[in-house]
Structures are given as structure tokens and as C-alpha cells.
Inverse folding.
């Protein structure tokens, strides 16, 4: 086989190869006359694959004539172009973007006479990159105008990007101050350990956060709250975007609140100490006065003077008892306001008997007739021993505000149904002076002008209201005989039945 035959065979092989590849191939003169092309050339530019375009002026494929001039000048200067992007036109006028790779061909005398090149359609890639760039620009704009601190860290916790305006406003730093430096270089010594741990866990788990003190450029410390998420950038490097905000004012407020709470707790403990000390010492004083009164009565004779002194002694004793009850009531009210009251099944009648016994002993100089009508001696409600204080206060109130020679009190314990739910109803009906209608709503309140001038009715009954409310019950007062308050009162307590 001759060399001519080999040359023809080689041309045939390369010709077949050019016709089968998807890359557009062209050979053109420097002034733009098409010399040769392949099928892919036509497909990309919208021509019939088998159509021959020899002698056509290729400048019709260029959207911008200036681009071709730049392209040819570059070829004449460098001898080749690599990845030259230009805007082209298809046969139907559709605009596309192509990427050219070309070589300048010279003759045996070194004069340029032809351009050989390939091209591909990169319209989709170009548009995608354009959108990505626009997106990056948009998010960069958002980042640069945001007041929060936005930074990107590499896996060694070094800054690769910051939104400079926010960093300068809050921390005083420019990009030059921070880029390439670790966030730990600016972290308070006491926070470095926890911050490093949070960063490591964040990179491991994909997200995380921490509160830390960051050194301001002027030297003082700023509390920041940082939250971040990891991502891979375009080069495949592992990064984290961290968004932080200044929480210095919040931290100062939290510290002041803790200090305030500590002061309040100390004041509360002191108040409790003084309260307990007061109750203890007052009870001791009252006990001494009571004992002294009894000694006076013991040593008195039968003279008229002695009888007067004995009456005074009894008055002293009663006031001592009243004082002791007042101290007890104040202590109970304090417990109700400061502590959570624990309730448990409690027998009504058992506590009622103790209350009646206490009231009769406290007023053994008066005739007191108390009758109980109870449907069941073992009725239980969800309460505790404070229920006895309730009974005592109501009974003492009935005795105190009764001008009859004989105090009559009838206690009725019954069951009541309201909306398919059962309650225990306890009524204290007496023959005392009664309660006027305008006072019925206020006698269970305290710290009001009306009650302060009411001969001491306020505190005991306010205690009753407080205790019954804590047991999810209700208390109120009615006339013993409807329409005539002067015939006595009927104090009513309603407590939910034990479930």
C-alpha cells in the first residue's frame, strides 16, 4: 500500500470520527468562510445534519460581531483559544451560548490561513452559573445588610468570610482583622473550653450552638449567642455558617435578676426568721401573762376587792387567749400564701369535735350549746388539719358576736348534688347578732377599711376563706331566718366529695 493510500485511509478514519462525535467541528478561513464542518456542528446550530454549509459566512452565527474580532485577535496573538465563551445564533434566530476551543493553522511559510476548532453548547451551564452567581449576590447582599453577625468557618474554626458591616458595628472588626484567624483567638479564656467543644460537636453533628464572650476590638467583652450549620462548598470543602447576635444586655439582665432573686431569698428567709421568732416570743409572753393571771386568782380572798381583781384576771386571760389565737391565725395565713398545701382524706366530724372542745374550753365562762346533725360520722373530704382552724374560727365568731346569755349553734353536715357532682355541705347556724346584707360579701376579706372597724371579724374569717379555697371549696354566709339578719347567721361551707 502506497503512502497516498495510507493518507486517504487516515483521512477516512478521522472523517468518520468527526461525524460520530457530539462536539461541533469547524474549519474556517480568517475572514469567516466555512471550509468544513461535521454533523454535530449543524445539530447544535439548528441545521439539517446532512446539509453542507461550505462557503457560508460564519459571522452569521455570532450574536456580537465584536466578540468574533476579539476571538480572531486572540488567535493571531496566541495561536490558540481555550474555553472561549461567546453568544451564538441558531438558524431559527434562537440565541445560545457556546464554548470554543480553536487553533490557528499556518502554511509552510508561517502565514495564518485557517482556523480549526470545536465547540459545545453551554447555554444551560451558563444560565445555571448565572443564576448561581445572582443567588450568591443576593445572599451576599442580605448578609452584608443583616444586623446579626454572619461568618463562615473552615474545619479549623478559622474565619473565611464575615459580613463586615455587622462585625464592625458590634465587635469593631474588619475582614482584614478576622479572616484566616480562629474564633477561639477572640474567645474569653473562661469560655474557650466550652466553645471549642461546641464547635467540634457542631461539625460532627451538622449543627450546634453556644453562648460565649467575644473580645471587642477595643478590649472589652461582648456576650454573643451563636448558632451554626455545616455545609460543603463548591470545591467540596467542609465548612460551617455561623449566625450570632449580641446578647450582652440579656446577660446583664439575667445577672441582675439572679442577684435580685438572691436578695429576695435572703430577705424572705430573714422575714421568716423574724416571723417565727416573733411568734415564739409572743407566745412565751402570753403564756407568762396567763400563768400570772392564774396565780393572781389563786391567791385572792373573798373580799369585794378580790372579786374585782378576779374579774380583771379573767379579762386578761381572755385577751391572752385571743392573742394566742391571733398569732396562730397569722402563722396559718402565712403558710397558705407561701407553701403548697398538701391535702389528704380527712374526717370532718373528728376535726369538728376537736374544734368544739377547744371553743368550749376557751369560753368556759359562757353557756354554749352546740348540736351536730351529721348524716355519716365518717364523712371524708380532701383536706388536712387546717380544716379544724376553719371550724374553730367560725365557732369562735359565733360565740364572740352573740349577746344572748346562752349561745346556740346547730351544725348540720349533709350531701349536695350539683351538675352530677356530689359535695359535702356544712352549716353553722347560730343565734348571734347576725350579719347585715351589705357586709355579707366583705367579711371574708381582709385589709379593707370596712373590716378594720369591724371589731376584729376580718382576720379569722379571711383565714376561713383562704383555707376553704385551697381545698377547692366555697364558703359564704346567709341569714338563719331568711330576710331577718338580726335572728342569727348561717355560715355555709361546701367541699367536694372525696373521689
Amino acid at each position: 500500500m502506497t503512502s497516498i493510500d495510507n493518507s486517504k485511509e487516515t483521512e477516512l478514519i478521522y472523517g468518520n470520527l468527526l461525524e460520530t462525535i457530539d462536539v461541533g467541528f469547524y474549519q474556517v478561513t480568517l475572514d469567516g468562510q466555512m471550509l468544513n464542518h461535521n454533523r454535530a456542528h449543524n445539530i447544535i446550530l439548528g441545521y439539517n445534519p446532512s446539509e453542507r454549509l461550505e462557503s457560508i459566512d460564519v459571522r452569521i452565527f455570532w450574536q456580537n460581531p465584536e466578540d468574533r474580532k476579539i476571538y480572531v485577535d486572540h488567535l493571531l496573538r496566541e495561536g490558540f483559544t481555550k474555553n472561549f465563551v461567546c453568544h451564538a445564533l441558531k438558524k431559527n434566530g434562537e440565541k445560545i451560548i457556546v464554548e470554543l476551543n480553536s487553533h490557528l493553522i499556518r502554511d509552510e511559510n508561517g502565514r495564518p490561513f485557517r482556523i480549526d476548532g470545536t465547540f459545545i453548547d453551554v447555554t444551560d451551564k451558563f444560565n445555571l452559573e448565572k443564576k448561581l452567581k445572582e443567588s450568591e449576590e443576593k445572599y451576599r447582599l442580605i448578609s452584608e445588610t443583616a444586623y446579626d453577625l454572619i461568618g463562615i468557618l473552615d474545619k479549623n474554626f478559622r474565619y473565611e468570610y464575615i459580613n463586615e458591616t455587622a462585625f464592625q458595628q458590634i465587635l469593631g472588626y474588619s475582614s482584614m482583622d478576622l479572616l484566616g484567624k480562629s474564633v477561639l483567638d477572640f474567645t474569653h479564656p473562661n469560655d474557650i473550653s466550652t466553645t471549642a467543644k461546641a464547635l467540634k460537636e457542631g461539625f460532627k453533628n451538622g449543627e450546634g450552638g453556644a453562648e460565649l464572650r467575644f473580645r471587642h476590638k477595643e478590649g472589652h467583652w461582648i456576650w454573643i449567642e451563636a448558632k451554626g450549620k455545616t455545609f460543603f462548598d463548591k470545591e467540596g470543602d467542609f465548612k460551617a455558617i455561623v449566625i450570632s447576635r449580641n446578647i450582652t444586655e440579656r446577660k446583664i439582665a439575667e445577672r441582675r435578676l439572679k442577684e435580685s432573686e438572691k436578695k429576695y431569698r435572703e430577705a424572705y428567709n430573714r422575714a421568716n426568721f423574724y416571723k417565727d421568732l416573733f411568734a415564739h416570743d409572743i407566745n412565751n409572753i402570753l403564756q407568762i401573762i396567763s400563768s400570772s393571771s392564774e396565780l393572781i386568782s389563786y391567791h385572792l380572798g373573798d373580799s369585794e376587792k378580790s372579786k374585782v381583781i378576779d374579774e380583771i384576771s379573767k379579762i386578761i386571760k381572755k385577751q391572752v387567749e385571743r392573742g394566742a389565737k391571733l398569732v396562730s391565725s397569722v402563722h396559718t395565713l402565712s403558710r397558705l400564701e407561701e407553701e403548697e398545701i398538701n391535702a389528704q382524706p380527712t374526717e370532718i366530724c373528728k376535726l369538728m369535735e376537736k374544734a368544739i372542745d377547744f371553743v368550749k374550753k376557751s369560753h368556759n365562762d359562757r353557756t354554749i350549746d352546740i348540736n351536730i346533725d351529721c348524716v355519716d360520722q365518717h364523712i371524708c373530704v380532701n383536706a388536712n388539719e387546717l380544716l379544724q382552724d376553719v371550724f374553730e374560727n367560725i365557732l369562735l365568731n359565733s360565740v364572740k358576736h352573740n349577746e344572748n346569755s346562752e349561745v346556740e349553734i346547730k351544725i348540720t353536715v349533709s350531701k349536695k348534688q350539683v351538675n352530677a357532682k356530689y359535695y359535702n355541705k356544712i352549716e353553722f347556724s347560730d343565734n348571734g347578732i347576725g350579719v347585715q346584707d351589705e357586709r355579707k360579701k366583705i367579711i371574708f376579706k381582709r385589709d379593707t377599711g370596712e373590716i378594720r372597724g369591724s371589731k376584729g371579724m376580718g382576720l379569722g374569717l379571711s383565714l376561713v376563706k383562704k383555707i376553704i379555697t385551697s381545698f377547692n371549696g366555697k364558703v359564704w354566709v346567709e341569714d338563719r331566718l331568711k330576710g331577718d339578719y338580726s335572728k342569727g347567721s348561717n355560715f355555709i361551707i361546701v367541699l367536694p366529695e372525696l373521689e
User: Anything to note?
Assistant: Residues 248-299 form the longest helix (52 residues). Residues 447-458 have pLDDT under 50 and may be disordered. Residues 129-246 form a domain with the Beta-Lactamase fold (CATH 3.30.450.20). The chain has 13 helices and 17 strands.
